[in-house]
Amino acid sequence: LDHAPQELMQRIMLMLGSFAKEAAAMPFFQLMTDPLQADEIRRLAAIELSVLCGHLLNPGPLMEVLKKASQDPDAFSRANALFAMSWKGNNGAALILVDGLYDPDPEVQQAAVHGLANLGDDRVFNLLLDRLRHGGADQKRAILCNLWRFSNLKNEVTAVYRKCLTDPDSDLRWEALIAMDLVEPSEGWNSEEIEEWTTDYVRCLRDRDHRIRLLAIRRLGKSSTGKLSPHRSEIALLEQDPEPVIRQEARQLLSRLME
After folding, report:
1. In angstroms, rounded to a whole number, what is the distance separating the alpha carbons of residues 160 and 231?
2. What is the sign, positive or negative, of the torsion defined by CA atoms of 65, 14, 108, 146?
3. Exposed, middle or buried: residue 156 (CB in 10 Å: 0-12, 13-18, 19+)?
4. Which of 33, 37, 35 shows the shortest CA–CA distance to 1?
5. Cβ proximity of 48 and 61 under 8 Å
6. Cα three-residue angle 170-78-108, rounded to 5 degrees
7. I need a labelling partner for 78 at 20 to 30 A (CA). Which of 67, 126, 207, 220 fits?
8. Residue 55 to residues 9, 52, 75, Cα–Cα distance (Å)
9. For the chain, where are the alpha helices, taking DSSP H only?
10. pLDDT for residue 240 is more than 90
11. Which pLDDT score, from 0 to 100, does residue 57 have?
12. What's the whole-model pTM score?
């Protein structure tokens, strides 16, 4: 494995990870911590470790070396260690991951967010909301990208995404709009809740950021025409949008509404 070309090495690692055998754990750890390996290989090793450890009968010894790696002076190494220990149910990593939220390096912070969301423990949800209010821009975006993992808190997650659609930071609004696709209305939602969801997308048609207007009109294009008819005038305004692709999407949607 050490002497294989990078592409072949990645294939071998994916194959070994699929077996979830304890014998593969330390080789993955060694690859993850080897500064001579390419960053892609080291990150893949961390991800494979996270998948593998969730199936081990005794991940304790590996967790001990991951704890030490999480204190490495190198930020990339710390981030990889946090990724590796973030398997579902690994509550022993919770405090280390919480500390990672306050690491000076943004990549370590993002790894900590991913790890906490992946643990499957709803008790960390409010902590992530606090960081969404007070963290840096990169950390906030990472939190929005991971909140959907709290499947038991779908209503609370949806409320966070909807609120962020009005945030002054356009990148944060963009991430929230992308993430809303992961918690869209289910069959159990009533008509009032679905109308609120549609109204959020319609409101995004007036956003200053063309990325948001485009994604919103495309999301609305997936809705039934009956839900969109009351919003025809707002959609028609996009026929004058400065972005040609948005004008095209609006005209196609208005054509559907006239059928």
Report:
1. 24
2. negative
3. middle
4. 37
5. no
6. 10
7. 126
8. 22, 6, 27
9. 6-19, 25-33, 39-53, 60-69, 75-84, 94-100, 106-118, 125-134, 137-146, 154-164, 170-180, 191-204, 210-220, 225-228, 232-236, 244-258
10. yes
11. 78
12. 0.84
SS (HEC) of 44-60:
HHHHHHHHHHCCCCCCH
Interior angle at CA 30, CA 24 and CA 36, nearest 5: 135
The pair of structure tokens assigned to 146 is 């991971």
Q: What mean pLDDT comes out for the span 148-167?
A: 94
* Residue-level pLDDT at 197: 83
Contacts of 221 (CB under 8 A, 6+ apart): 249, 252, 253, 256
| Torsion sign across C-alpha atoms 144, 149, 150, 156 | positive
Query: Average pLDDT, whole number, for the chain?
Result: 89
Vertex 146: Cα angle to 11 and 80 (nearest 5)? 45
107: left (phi over 0), alpha (psi -120 to 50) or beta: alpha
33-56 b/e (C-beta count within 10 Å ≥ 16 → b)? beeebeeebbbbbbbbbbbbbeeb
175 near 143, Cβ under 8 Å? no
First to last CA, the chain: 60
- pLDDT at residue 58 greater than cutoff 90: no
Structure tokens that stand for 76 in this block: 């990339």
In angstroms, the CA 117 to CA 214 distance is 29
